[in-house]
Amino acid sequence: MLDNTKFSITDTQMINRMLLHPDFVVCKPKTNYYHSYFGVKLSLDFRKAVESGKVVGYGYLEINVSPHYHFNQYRHNANDFTPENSIKTVSDILTYLGIEPQEYDRLKVVNIEFGINIIPETNIKNLINGILFHKKTVFKTGIFPYFKKTEATSYKQIKAYAKGLQFLEFPQYKIDPNTFRFEVKSKQAKNITKYGIRTADDLIKTNIYKTLNQTLLDEWENVLIINQNPDLSHLKNAEIEFVQTANKIDFWKNLIHPKNRNKFNRYREKYYRVLASENNLHHLIKLQIIDKLISFQSGANSTQKTPIKSEEIITDQSDPNKINLEFAPLPINNSNCLVTGLDISMQKKGSKYLCYSGLKYYKENEPQIYLHLEKIYLTEKMKLRDIDIQIYYIAHNIRNRKTNEIHNRERFENRNYSKQQLQLNFNII
Prior knowledge:
This protein is α+β, with helices and mostly antiparallel strands and about 425 residues long. It is about 35% helix and about 20% strand. The chain has 16 helices and 13 strands. The chain has helices at about 10-20, 65-70, 85-95, 125-130, 165, 190, 205-220, 235-245, 250-255, 265-275, 280-295, 355-365, 365-375, 385-405, 410-415, 420, and strands at about 1-10, 25, 35-40, 45-50, 55-65, 110-120, 130-135, 135-140, 140, 145-155, 155-160, 180-185, 225. Strands 2-3-4-5-1-6-12-11-10-9 form a 10-stranded antiparallel β-sheet. The protein has a 3-stranded antiparallel β-sheet with strand order 8-7-13.
């Protein structure tokens, strides 16, 4: 989740306190208008206040932190880093600085970067080479090979790169060479507030990370990625010709024209449709992002390549909120969703709730069960979204049925569902 983050402080008392922190030493300032300090875990930039040519104090302080790196003792940011990890790490950093929780709202967030790591099945070099556009803005090669970024707007940057290749010389970190990282960086406070983030106090709120998760997914929707080595055996001659033509960046550049703003998007949709799911890298990566985000919200552990701890799950069949198992396949390993009671043995071992892969299974193999889940857990608004987003929200709402038990359920349902949905019989007989 959280990576490079910058806080700004104007509280004079706090600034003077930071000046006295014992772990920081003077380092080269970013400009002559600053005094800069570097510590074991982060850096501080003090803006000079000058009168009559003399420094009389400091107008404000910028604190630069890297929560994900901090989490890994500043070795790397290539493993999973959950919202829970982010919240705890931000608190740890601020505690190290001597900042009390009641002071968090004095730290304005002026720069934030958040991302996700996945391990795609396709070769990472081909994947990065195939990433061409964010919306209609071209991705450009960045600071090292197989690194791409784009200035989406004047205040937002999108990054996509081969995180595993970045750490090939450090095998002791056990980072999969095929690790892919997708990041969003917001460089202005006015954009950061769109995420519901204003101060450090917001970064320790769980709901904020739901917004960041959705932002990552939404930004990936805007990415155009081509498959440089598609399987064309199942395509017609006209489709093969289209795919081969569309695999050149100039083809897409020529579609960008102010008089026909929708042409680019129409052809992008056509390209993905012709490739179909098994060849559509954009779709395959999106599924992995969705699965990873759901695992974060389900409390999966945060160590790369380490499976979720397994445990025997015993369900209470008398719970009226569970779905009757009349239409469900017989359990294979006695693993059932804690909310619905449905078999989830097709998911990763140790899963507690129905997630994307399980819901996908029911949609394809047990449509009656899937439709019933859809009626209960999907709002009318979400039914207008594409199927992957629908499944994501069904899984999200199933999990919340368990984790939000302390909340007022009646208020939640009145806010999100129609009266007809609320009259559904949760027990299929």
